[in-house]
Amino acid sequence: MASLWEYANPKKFIDTTDKVLPWVSVLAVLCLATGLIWGFFFTPDDFRQGSTVKIIYLHVPSALMAINAWIMMLVASLIWVVRRHHVSALAARAAAPVGVVMTVIALATGAIWGQPMWGTWWAWDPRLTSFLILFLFYLGYIALWEAIENDDTAADLTAILCIVGSVFALLSRYAVLFWNQGLHQGASLSLDKEENVADVFYFPLLVSIAGFVFLFIALVFLRTQTEIRARRMRALLARDRMEA
Amino acid sequence: MPDLGKYAEAVLSSYAVSLVLLIALVVLSWRRSVRVKNALKDVERKRKSDA
Amino acid sequence: MIALLLRDIRLAVRAGGGFGLGLAFFLIVVVLVPFGVGPQSELLSRIAAGILWIGALLACLVSLDRIFALDWEDGSLDLLATAPLPMEAVAAVKGLAHWITTGLPLVLAAPVLGVLLSLPVQGYGPLVLSLLLGTPALSMIGAFGAALTVGLRRGGLLLSLLVLPLYVPTLIFGAEMARRGVDGQDYSTPMLMLAGITCGTIALLPFASAAVLRVNLR
């Protein structure tokens, strides 16, 4: 069994992901199409929410991935700090914009759903507020990457920001809970059956979540490849300039 | 097309917003990937012909 | 360490060090708010605690980039890095100096500005206490942010973007404590949380700041 760390070799990473990428992309499209079409066309309306319940197939998976993307960035940052694998740092960088888009989708669909259901686009509810704060963290992280010219310095600083930011993001989550009571419903997916959404909504939701997960993986692979190639190109050009 | 009732606007707009954002992200990532791949190929070819 | 602390304070107080700048900024924010929301004193007294907290936070923010920037420019940061003093201590002392020159004056000025916002009498104690407990955390977090952006030419705006999300928990607990104090409620829970955040940032963030500084000095 080959060690996981072999994929820290950029060449190996590109070769392997090149092979895997088409499959993951197909899976992502299939799952997304199945989940969303199933959810949109073939599920009944909720007796209280009416047809707005169909927004759940976008809202819950994107919110889930917004958090998971940050966690993935945290893990990648830790790997970079501890083991100094460049691919890891680049993967964290590649994931950040995907996380931002997921956060925006979660916030936007939530607002559109909240308008008819809660009677307001926005409420300073703990979950909503936490997501807004998460959004700000993403923006700061990306801005720091863009601002620093030296690649290794940027990787180090953003990794530390990601780690420190995670602690503060968690802290904010609890601070916000303390600050205001919520309007938002409890977890949509949990092992506790009572809390869960009804089965008719549950299965298309699961498929849709799988689609978002595969889409995230595909995008991160693709974008990490791009980052690796971009960096290799910069290095080659710099070497040419040195020789000239 | 299922009957969305009085909430059609909300449901449709949230699907539209999400799909537009996702497709934009995919297209942008894809385009940048292709562009960088070609640029790197160019640089490598030029180096080989120089050497 | 003490020599470094005294040096930093002296530099800040001296002309051009920007000692009064944060204080003046605080004053201006507080004076502008009534123009924005209207002069009704019952409205002002309800939001006074929050405004004073936001004002203190912003005043802290505008003075952050000076924590390391001057030492970075004239190379004394490199000297400090090679000095026997560990980088963690340097970061902690810099944060402390920032607090003494910016945070402490803000705490002392807050009750005076509270009068302008017709802060209720019972609110003064909790407000000052909350600022006293909270501003060290603002300084330490700010020192971390300043360390992150020290090598950048136009780091000011980026610094704000990085630091503001990190300020959220401190602001929530600090303002909540002051608000509960104004309402005459029990404010021990947010006070303990605020003190916890401050202790945590003082204990841990100098390590992060030092790591960042080492990367930047590489």
Structure, described:
The complex is a heterotrimer of chains A (244), B (51) and C (218). Chain A is mainly alpha-helical. Chain A has helices spanning 10-42, 56-83, 86-118, 126-147, 151-179, 199-243. Chain A has one domain (22-182, 191-239). Helix content of chain A is 78%, strand content 0%. Chain A is globular. With 51 residues, chain B is mostly helical. Chain B has a domain at 25-51. Chain B has one helix spanning 8-50. The radius of gyration of chain B is 21 Å and the shape is rod-shaped. Chain C is mainly alpha-helical and 218 residues long. Chain C has one domain (2-217). Chain C has helices at residues 2-13, 19-37, 41-62, 66-73, 76-82, 87-116, 124-148, 156-182, 188-217. The model of chain C has no long low-confidence stretch (mean pLDDT 87). Chains in contact: A-B, A-C. Chains A and B meet through α1, α2, α3 and α6 of A and α1 of B. Chain C: InterPro entries: Cyt_c_biogenesis_CcmB, Cyt_c_CcmB_bac. Chain C: GO terms for molecular function: heme transmembrane transporter activity. Chain C: Required for the export of heme to the periplasm for the biogenesis of c-type cytochromes. Chain C: Belongs to the CcmB/CycW/HelB family.
Helix-strand makeup class of chain B: mainly alpha
* Mean pLDDT over all positions of chain C: 87
**Percent of residues in beta strands of chain B:** under 5%
> Which radius of gyration of chain B do the C-alpha atoms yield?
21 Å
Oligomerization state: heterotrimer
The parts of chain C where pLDDT drops under 50 for at least 5 residues are: none
Q: Greatest interface and its residue counts?
A: A-B, 36 and 31 residues
**Could you name the ranges of chain B where pLDDT drops below 50 across 5 or more consecutive residues?**
none
What order do the helices and strands of chain B follow?
H
| Fraction of residues in β-strands of chain C | under 5%
| Number of strand segments of chain B | 0
Biggest sheet layout of chain B? none
* Average pLDDT for all residues of chain B: 86
**Helicity level of chain C:** over 70%
Query: How widely separated are the two ends of chain B?
Result: 63 Å
